[in-house]
Amino acid sequence: MKLKLNMRNEIKGVLALAALLVLIAFAEREQHQAAVKEISITIDNLNDNHFIDEEDVRGLMQMKDKSLIGTTVSSINLKEVEKKIKSNRFIEDAELYSDLKGNLLVNVELRRPIARIVRNDGPDGYIAEDGTIMPVSEKFTTRVVLISGSYGRNLLGQQNINGTEEGQQLMEMLELIREDDFWKAQIAQLDIDSKGRVTLFPQVGDEHIEFGKPENVEEKFKKLMIFYKEILPVKGWNKYKRINLEYEGQLVAE
């Protein structure tokens, strides 16, 4: 008797599972045959990064001579639309999917700039935290450290500065500045010459700081911190015009 009851329960379970699979398949077919009613866009980091908005994303989503609204979900190549959205330099990632009501849901993650490359003979550009070179936006300007000089201008022609050892060293330096509250507030500009040598210009103080190439970055900033903590409070903030950090184990102040 127990064996028969167990077999009946197993049969009922199999039938219930089969019925559930049929319902899921039917729901998926209905979902794909449904026409797109609305497009819901969520932009991550929107509160502190306004380079693009929902309308910009909608514009990126539109296919040639075709509106997504009213189109069946099954006729839309979601991967192709995602690719179009990601083609924008401000966008780091995008995910596109549909719900059971026929709505398209779009999640967009924006890149965050950590430096701005400035030039006199053309448009500026930003360096994102992943090394991507981004254009400037007419809609929004963010306060980040400035990069000037011939080396910086050359960076504007690149897709991502992490492709070279020099670019990776510069990224390390920018990350250190960004992650330290004092340096983030104090370092206003990096002027980089054609040989990659960096000169720092502070927010407070008249001195310019000859940093050299962005090598041994932590050691050089430790020496500079000694200058700010132990020398300037005694000698005064306007005493020196030139600081050199290039030589190992030395700090030259004139």
Nutshell version of this structure?
This protein is α/β, with parallel strands linked by helices and about 250 residues long. Helices cover about 35% and strands about 25% of the residues.
Your description of this structure?
This protein has 254 residues and is an alpha/beta fold. The chain has two domains: 39-110, Roll (Ubiquitin-like (UB roll)); 113-253, Cell division protein FtsQ/DivIB (Rossmann fold). It is 37% helix and 23% strand. It contains seven helices and twelve strands. The strands form two sheets. It has a nine-stranded mixed beta sheet. It has a three-stranded mixed beta sheet with strand order 1-3-2, with helices on one face. A hairpin with a 4-residue loop joins strand 5 and strand 6. It is elongated, with a radius of gyration of 28 Å. The model is unreliable at 19-32 (pLDDT under 50).
List keywords for this structure.
Rossmann fold, three-stranded mixed sheet, Ubiquitin-like (UB roll), 254 residues, alpha/beta, elongated, 37% helix, nine-stranded mixed sheet
Chart the SSEs and their pairings.
Blueprint: H1 2-33, E1 39-44, H2 54-61, H3 78-86, E2 91-98, E3 104-110, E4 113-117, E5 125-128, E6 133-135, E7 145-148, H4 150-155, H5 165-179, H6 181-186, E8 187-192, E9 198-202, E10 208-212, H7 217-235, E11 242-244, E12 252-253
